[in-house]
Amino acid sequence: MRTCLVVDDSSVVRKIARRILEDLDFQIVEAEDGEKALEICKKGLPDAILLDWNMPVMDGYEFLGNLRRLPGGHQPKVVFCTTENDIDHISRALHAGANEYIMKPFDRDIVAAKFQEVGLIEQMLPASA
Amino acid sequence: MNQPDYEYLRKLLKDNSGLDLSADKQYLIESRLLPLARKAGLADISELVQKLKGGSSVMVGQVVEAMTTNETFFFRDKVPFDHFRESIMPEIIKARANRKSIRIWCAAGSTGQEPYSLAMCVKEMSAALTGWRVEIVATDISQEVLEKSKAGIYSQFEVQRGLPIQMLVKYFKQNGDLWQINPEIRAMVQHRQLNLLHDFSQLGVFDIIFCRNVLIYFDQDTKINIFGRLAKIMEPDGFLVLGAAETVVGLTDVFKPFPERRGLYRPSGIAGAPAKAGATSWPKVPAAARL
Prior knowledge:
- The structure holds two protein chains of two kinds.
- Chain A is of the alpha/beta class.
- Chain A has one domain: Rossmann fold (3-Layer(aba) Sandwich).
- Chain A is built from five helices and five strands.
- In chain A, helix 3 links the parallel strand 3 and strand 4.
- Chain A is globular, with a radius of gyration of 14 Å.
- Chain A starts with a strand and ends in a 12-residue tail after the last helix.
- Chain B is an alpha/beta fold.
- Chain B has two domains: about 70 residues, Chemotaxis Receptor Methyltransferase Cher, domain 1; about 190 residues, Vaccinia Virus protein VP39 (Rossmann fold, 3-Layer(aba) Sandwich), CATH 3.40.50.
- Chain B contains ten helices and ten strands.
- In chain B, helix 2 packs across helix 4.
- Chains A and B meet through helix 4, strand 5 and helix 5 of A and helix 8 of B.
């Protein structure tokens, strides 16, 4: 089973993301800030990381930079998931090595579409008419 | 909703749009038409039916629009666009090397996600298309939907379903919570109102036709009739792309499926398809975008 690290300081958002991603067959690990997420990654890299931007201690942007410098740190697919929804933030994130970007609010369809986009899940079955 | 009202609406939709609702689509009618009824100051579907029976042609138009408008998203189903990039376009580019022109029709262009997805694909291939003329014609039965398509303005939700983030950054301009596709991409798509039940031969001959997720609403005879007319306006080596749940198999032999390439069809040469490739007569349309 593939693993996804969900990094968000809101326990509500983590819970919603967990429900969606478990439904997409991911095993979930949670972290409430970038520093805790980095500690988890040093012990073992997940397949995917759903990453908030604004968090106490270490924000998502700084975490991403640190992650990509770890041995093998380019492997996890990183999908930002944040209320920072302007083009400057998106461009910065992509430049720093994010694979995809979700602008909150999000739903199951968006998460599935983005995870499909970066090859984390297979082609979804077409919705029936 | 009572049964006579439902039957009345079924018949009205069938006659005016070809939409063929099965006997159990009451929920679909309720969800689409109740907001319309309320907007018109009517209490429920029953009052809406009374109004329609009174001969309100404006209302008939609105009912048809509401029932035939479908949710769509960028790069819907992904696979057809992979086919478009990796096999359809390379093959057509090779075959049209002398003519240097390609005509593409989105037969159910809806709010623009499909034609603009194709336009972005074409744009990404511009290195191979220098000096070519690529036309993308988007048609839809609904004028309201076409207006939205022309504007090319989408909500944050709409741009996150199927559109890779790099393409959003590259081809859209942000305006608050809304995102507008760049004028350069918009100019690549021509819009026309068109009911597939009516003659569409005036559109000219196409190399590629995307006709996805619209024929499923038509009954068998209507589908056969449309396939026959599609075959007549396609180059013999052209490509027809249908939706994932659609096929010609068992309906008509004017198109044949490609083995191994699901959803792709080519005219079989039966039933009067254009005789030779390249014999296109250009229809009178606004200037196409040149790459």
